[in-house]
Structures are given as C-alpha cells and as structure tokens.
Amino acid sequence: MNLSQRLTKVKNTVINCETVCDIGCDHGFVSVSLIKEGKAKRVIACDINKGPLEAAKENVSKEGLSSQIELRLSDGLSQVFPKDKPDSIVIAGMGGALMCKILTEGSKVVSSANQLVLQPQSEIFLVRKWLRENGFYIKNEEFLKDMGKYYVIMDARPGKSEVFDSEIQEFFDIYSKNLIDKKDNLYKEYLLWKIEKNSGYLAGITGDKRDELERKIILMKKAVSMMK
Q1: For 202-226, what is each residue's pLDDT tens digit?
Q2: What is the reported pLDDT for 204?
Q3: Handedness of CA 203, 209, 211, 214 (dihedral sign)
Q4: Are 139 and 196 members of one domain?
Q5: Cα radius of gyration (the chain)
Q6: 221 lies in which domain range?
Q7: For a FRET experiment, which of 100, 105, 149, 223 has its CA 20 to 30 Å from that of 194?
Q8: Is residue 167 part of a domain?
Q9: What DSSP state is assigned to residue 124?
Q10: 108 and 220 in one domain?
Q11: Based on the domain organization, do 47 and 153 belong to the same domain?
C-alpha cells in the first residue's frame, strides 16, 4: 500500500495518539498506515460516499485491522461524536470552504481535539482564518509539490494565534506567516513562478481586473521579499 508524497506528509504530521478521525478517508490508505506504523491505536475512518468506504473496508480487512479501524458513512463529522474523543482529526483533499463547513458543523468534536491535520485544495486563506477565529493556531505548515501540483499541509493545535491589524492579518491568511518565517525555498520558488505567470497576463487586462491583478503581484513580491 503505497501512499503518495502528499498523503505521506499528511500521515507523518499526525501526532502519536490514541484515536485519529480520518474524514474523507477514501480507500483508507492513510488510516491503515497510521495503525501499521503505530501512530494511532484506533482510527475512525469516515467518507460521505459508499463506494470508497466499501473499498476502504476491503483494504482494512486485507490488512487484518478491522478491530482497530472503524468505518462510518458520514457527511463530514456528522457521525463522529464527543464520546469518540478523537485526539487528532485529519481532513485532506477538500476545498477550503467545504473544510471550514465540516469543522464548523462538527465543532463539538473539533473543540476537544488536540490536533487538526488539514490539507485544503483551494481557498487556503479561509482555513487559516477559520482556525484563527475558532481557538486554534497553526503550529507548522509544510509546502510540497507532488505529481506536478502544489500542496499545503497544516498542523493546527488548540490555542491563540498571533494578533495583527486587519490588513496584515489578511496578508498572512493568504500568504502564510508560517511559510514566510521558515523561508521555505519551494514556497518562494512557487511565488516567483506565480509572479511571472500573472505578470504575463497584465498586457491583456484593463480596468478593475488589472488593478486587482497588480495588487496581487505586489503582495506576492512582498511575501518573497520577507523570505530573503
């Protein structure tokens, strides 16, 4: 059972603990790896679709882990309850807005977790904002490239985030204070690529859209300059 680089990083980010909740478990590869590597004693693996959950059930059975991995048909965290006491909650491969919705609707379970491992596919700024406004801080972010795509993986823990004025806060929600402070080389390369790509679009754009794109380029350049 080979995990992709992305899912390996997700799995490695999980703290050693008693119970992990794997939301959107798909075929159960992360859940199985967490048990086999001793990172968790128990996993609650959830998916909204019956097909992937059946595949996960088969994979779990093949590995002889049915007593340690419980599979639940669940829309987000709807079938996970405070009595389950998950130490770490993993949500990977979803859009940021959907991720925030899942976290909000499952707030009773989320509020008691010791860790959230989040890998949003889009609208990452919404996830950073949600964490900040709901009693979590980002302990670490990892930026990686896998199969030609870029990903951010967040390790969030209960606690207060740093407070900045609204303009700076918005900037860090979008461009990640954590990755900037780390001077992450891959993230810097990514931003330089985005600057070059967006600059090429300017010639064919006028009006408000041009102003918006120019502002975006300025902010990306600011993020790069902070990593020097």
Answers
A1: 988 889 999 999 999 999 999 999 9
A2: 84
A3: negative
A4: no
A5: 19
A6: 186-225
A7: 100
A8: no
A9: H
A10: no
A11: yes
1 has a pLDDT exceeding 90: no
Task: Tell me, yes or no, whether 94 and 141 share the same domain.
Answer: yes
Residue 62 is predicted with a pLDDT of 96
**pTM higher than 0.85:** yes
Per-residue pLDDT reduced to its tens digit, 56-101: 999 999 999 999 999 999 999 999 999 999 999 999 999 999 999 9
User: Within 10 Å of residue 121's Cβ, how many Cβ atoms?
Assistant: 15
176 within some domain: no
Tokens representing residue 71 in the block: 């599979």
Residue 3 CA to residue 1 CA, distance in Å, equals 7
Q: Could you please report the per-residue DSSP string of 146-197?
A: ETTEEEEEEEEEESPPP---HHHHHHHHHH-HHHHHHT-HHHHHHHHHHHHH
Looking at 160, 176, 204, the residue that finishes a domain is 160
- Beta strands 149-158 and 136-146, pairing class: antiparallel
